[in-house]
Each structure stands twice: as structure tokens, then as C-alpha cells.
Specification:
This protein has one helix at residues 31-63; strands at 4-10, 16-22. The longest helix is centred in the middle third of the chain and has 33 residues, at 31-63. It is α+β, with helices and mostly antiparallel strands and 86 residues long. It has a two-stranded antiparallel ribbon with strand order 1-2. It is rod-shaped, with a radius of gyration of 38 Å. It has one helix and two strands, in the order ββα.
């Protein structure tokens, strides 16, 4: 029968009685515990992915603009220390 289960009850004098009892309903998980599980399992991964996406977006956005333009020329003079290293 749906919703019912057979249970064997063992008594002190070695007597066994079979009973048919209604199945216990599941106890719902409280919302604070569900929220705690979400914060511990889903939220760290989701925030990591969001940070990676934002990092790539900023990288592409800032990487296209030249940050510094410079030129380097070697001069013909040699630099020499005023004293020897003794």
C-alpha cells in the first residue's frame, strides 16, 4: 500500500508483532541551513567566476590603450666609476 510500511516490533518475551504504520513524512530542511549550505558551496565558486570574468574584461579594456610610449638610445659615452673597486 502506498504511504504505509510494515514494521516488525520485537517485544521482551521474544514475541514478534507485525504492524502496518504510516510512513513518516520527511522533515523539511530549515531555510537558514539551506542558506548556509549555499554560502559554503555555491557562492565561493560563483564569486570566483565573476572575478575571473571581470578580470578578463578589465584586461581587454586596459590592454588596448597604450600606457606608456618611450624611446631608448645608447649614448656614445662610457660611464666609468671615479675609483677602482679596491
Amino acid at each position: 500500500m502506498p504511504g504505509l510500511e510494515q514494521v516488525s516490533l520485537y517485544l521482551r518475551n521474544d514475541e514478534v508483532r507485525d504492524m502496518i504504520l504510516p510512513r513518516p513524512e520527511c522533515i523539511p530542511t530549515p531555510w537558514p541551513q539551506r542558506l548556509r549550505g549555499f554560502r559554503r558551496s555555491v557562492l565561493p565558486g560563483a564569486s570566483f567566476l565573476v572575478c575571473v570574468v571581470v578580470m578578463f574584461w578589465l584586461w581587454e579594456r586596459q590592454g588596448q590603450m597604450p600606457n606608456a610610449v618611450g624611446e631608448w638610445r645608447r649614448s656614445g659615452s662610457m660611464w666609468r666609476p671615479p675609483r677602482t673597486g679596491r
